[in-house]
Design brief:
By secondary structure, the chain is an alpha+beta fold. Helices cover about 35% and strands about 15% of the residues. The strands form 7 sheets. Strands 1-4-5-3-2 form a 5-stranded antiparallel β-sheet. Strands 6-9-10-8-7 form a 5-stranded antiparallel β-sheet, with helices on one face. A 5-stranded antiparallel β-sheet has the order 11-12-13-15-14, sandwiched between helices.
Amino acid sequence: MVVLSPRSLSFLYCILVIIISLTKTTSETISVKYCNPSEDSGNYTTNSTYHTNLNTLLSNLTSNTETNNNNGFYNVSYGQNSNKIYAVGLCRGDIKRDNCHSCLNKAIVNLTQYCANQKEAYAWYDDETCLLYYSDRLIYGNLIIEPWDYSWDGENEMVVDAVQFNRSLINLMDSLITRAASGGSSRKYATSSVVGPNNHQTIYGLVQCRPDLSRTDCSSCLNESMLALPGCCNNMKGARILRPSCILRYGTNTLFYVPEVYAPPPAPSNNNTYSQGNSDVLKIALAVAVPAVVIFLLLSFIIICIRMRKPKQSFEAEEDDYEIETADSLQIDFDAIQEATNNFSDANKLGQGGFGIVYRGRLSNGQEIAVKRLSRYSGQGDIEFKNEVLLVAKLQHRNLVRLLGFSIRGNERLLVYEFVPNKSLDHFIFDPTKARQLDWESRYKIIGGITRGIVYLHEDSRLRIIHRDLKASNILLDEEMNPKISDFGMAKLFDMDQTQGETNTVVGTYGYMAPEYALHGQFSVKSDVFSFGVLVLEIVSGRKRSCIRHGENLEDLLSFAWRNWRAGTIANIIDPTLINVSESEIMRCIHIGLLCIQENVAGRPTMGSIMLMLNSYSISLAVPSEPPYSLDSKDGMLPDMQSSEYNSDATRSRESTNTSAPISVNEASISEFFPR
């Protein structure tokens, strides 16, 4: 009888996998596949070092016990410099270990054939059983949401009661996304079901992220998939959205099994009694010695830390060493910023707000930046400043202006932001000439982008943040007219379970303020919703929130929109520069805007529900009630609201006489968050 060595058996196994894979077509096994999805990785040469490293890395993907966390996730890298390759493998949370390994092995064979000689590729394989992603760029810990794909389940049937079905589905997915994102570093996976329309149809749901992602990134990935559902899979009985970092799936048939708890494979047996005996003696000695040494070192370390520990000022909570190191890594040399702005010359001045002057600059590497030079005598210490910078830096979203770094020298405090070239939204929509550059498609995209940004602040970021100063001048536009929310100088920080706060000092801009905030200092996420509603009406109408002439009288935008909505003269609200508009979209936006500016706080929708309203016409809208600032209402307007509006576009506080100069390109500020 011929006895094969383990290496020979492994070789034969690989040959068998290849033979099996060749008996199937690629389309039967790979659900989604992309070669070079980042479009900048390029190709490699056959038999090159990169090719050899790739084969070595993939052959060890599932056998690398150091990176396998025994939960169906694998992370490996191999090689050096330009020939270094990274790979991750992820199996769906309900897949057994053997099936997981089998899926990944088949994926390796098929994907390397399908994307031959291409440095980067990823695929969801075997009906989303597993994900394989390899690249010449770091994958681990990075959120990658594109390219993405979708498919429908079963016979592509559509639901009968779409409204009720979608409501049930949204509630189910909201719960699953929260559970999955809250998972630890070993698994971010959640499944459940809910009774659908008429209590006779069960909807099953499954969501999963790569466990190396942060809670925020996981939530962002899955919420992006939720946003995509109305466009790709509206009213379908079952569908799935597949991304490099997450999967979202639902249907009316059971999608998942009872999850198996992954356990390490049993150790190989050893029949050599003598060797086993020596091994047992060694294990006993180590079992006694190692814990004693570990306990001694741990106690010593704790004692040293207690003795050396000093009280440290902090904004919300004491930052750990990792976060302080992160803050320090964001620090930029003051001289470099001074040189980039030509010593803060007036020629580079972009604008001035209540907290400092904004300058345009260019770093030595050619990157354009916007620098906010804060007041020299703000009374804020270095540690508090760094803590706040760290918090703002964590707010990473494509619809928020990105903080690049900061600098401290003496009393100088500098904030460095990405440069956004197309100035602010008010620069366009309130100018009759420039307004023509924003057609309805662009404005609708801007409304959607602002919505996503606020949803991130309210629901998806690590901390719940109330902006408190949403307005057209604080919405910046990039080169493709994508909106970016800026100026967090008035922002308030909430605990995730906190719903409302109060303040004695009202800050923000009159006209955008919710009545409960302007009159009583009460603010919540619904305060931002009110401001958003005013902003939507401004975008649709091209009119400022006040100073609309109606006969011989002046009225504010809210009163004007409400009056025409009641009269059925919607065309009067629409900016006359807009032509060939989608009536259904523009009327829906006006309707949403009026829902947001209702006086009743509970009647205003959340930003999450607004996002769904904008993306799904199957969701019916409630009837709005009269806005509080209507000139013909019983209560009338807020005291001095109009005069404040005329005097300054950026009134900061009823208790302050400081006004702001016109805001230009990058009116972005350090967050002045206030804890409870």
